[in-house]
Structures are given as C-alpha cells and as structure tokens.
Write a structure and sequence with these properties.
By secondary structure, this protein is mainly α. It has nine helices and no strands. Helix content is 84%, strand content 0%.
C-alpha cells in the first residue's frame, strides 16, 4: 500500500470511527461496561491514529513566530472570558440540564472524581484532540485537498463528534445545533491557527483556555449547592 493510500485509510477511519464510539459511550449506553469501554477506546484511537500518522507522514511541527504565540494566548483568554460571561449570565436557564448531564457522565464512570475528570479533559484530552484533529486529520486532508477544504472537512468531523456529546446532554434540538455550530467554528479557527503556526502546542493552549469555563459551569450545574 502506498503512503497516500495509507493516509486515505487513516482519514476515513479517523473521521468516522470517533462518531460511532461516542454514540455508543454517550447516547446508546445499553450496557455500562461497554459504554465505558467505548469511551476508553475513543481516547486510545486519538493516540493510535496520531502515532500511525506520524510514522507515515513524519510531519514535524515548528515553533511559531512571537506574534502568533501572543495571538494564540490572548485570543484564548478572550474566548474564555466571553464563554464564562455568557454561560454564567444564563446559568439558571441551563441548570435544568444538569441532571441529564450527570446521568450520562455517571454511566461512563466520570462523576466519581469530577475534578480529576475535568482536569483530564481540559489538559490532556484537549492535547490529544489537537494532535488528532489538527496534526493528523487536518494535515492529512491537506495532502488531497486545498487548505480551505481540509479545514472544512476536518471541522465537520470535529463538530460531528461533539454533536454526539450534545445529544447525550441536552434535549433541545436548537441548543444542540447551536453548540454543534460553535464547535464547528472553533474547529475551523483551530485548524486555521494550526495552519498559521504549525504548532500543536499553541493551538492546544488556546483550546485548553476555552475548556476551562466550560467545565467550571458544568460543575456548577451538575453539583448545585
């Protein structure tokens, strides 16, 4: 198999398999053990695809210039403040979703130590996602498509995976579609940022900062005082 065909195979698997794993772990949940297994496999997939892609493509991220490093940090802080401000303003409106979110996470075993889970997602999962969606999927797509099309396709995959999360957490179709659209836009932004910086690290910093207010608000609504 040629290198191009190997990358095509990885892209097909990488764009489709996470959706089915998240669907089973977060939505179907007909067996607690299998749901937790599917959740764990989804994280292993992030690692495996990244390692295999690196072994095939040998793409080495570079260090971005100082202005882009500052932009990555400042824009992440701005996003975080805006997200916190909006969510905290409407926290009483979203608090009723707390019970459903808690139940979904509880079925996967993620509520026993919510702090540890949150730190894991904020710090490590965001890093895995950047290696997966930007370093592997986005860079792989650029082998066969223009930068803009690669950004679009990769971001659709990123948003589709998060769509499954939102379906498992919320019942309002309008809220689900709004959050999915926002995920798509962040996927586009982070792909653009990676294209400009060629750095997983600085895109990860931006992603990490965005995650912080999300999980703080999630804590407030699923563990009301």
């Amino acid at each position: 198999m040629t290198r191009e065909n190997k990358i095509k195979t990885l892209l097909v698997i990488g764009l489709i398999l996470p959706i089915f794993l998240q669907l089973y772990s977060h939505v179907i949940q007909d067996n607690v053990l299998f749901s937790r297994l599917a959740y764990g496999l989804s994280k292993l997939l992030f690692v495996a695809i990244t390692i295999i892609f690196w072994s095939i493509y040998r793409a080495t991220p570079k260090t971005p210039q100082s202005p882009m490093r500052v932009f990555s940090l400042v824009s992440g802080l701005v996003f975080a403040l805006v997200i916190f401000g909006v969510l905290y303003t409407f926290i009483e409106d979203i608090r009723p979703f707390g019970e459903k979110i808690y139940q979904t996470l509880s079925n996967i075993g993620l509520t026993k130590n919510f702090l540890l889970y949150s730190l894991g997602i904020i710090i490590f999962n965001s890093l895995l996602e950047e290696f997966y969606w930007r370093y592997s999927i986005f860079v792989g797509l650029k082998k066969f498509f223009s930068v803009n099309k690669a950004m679009l396709i990769g971001s659709l995959g990123f948003a589709s995976m998060h769509f499954i999360y939102f379906v498992s957490f919320f019942e309002s179709i309008w809220l689900i579609m709004l959050l999915t659209t926002i995920s798509f836009l962040f996927g586009m932004f982070w792909a653009w940022l990676y294209h400009k910086t060629n750095s997983v690290f600085w895109v990860w910093i931006n992603h990490l900062l965005v995650n912080i207010p999300l999980f703080y608000i999630e804590y407030l609504i699923i563990f009301p005082k």
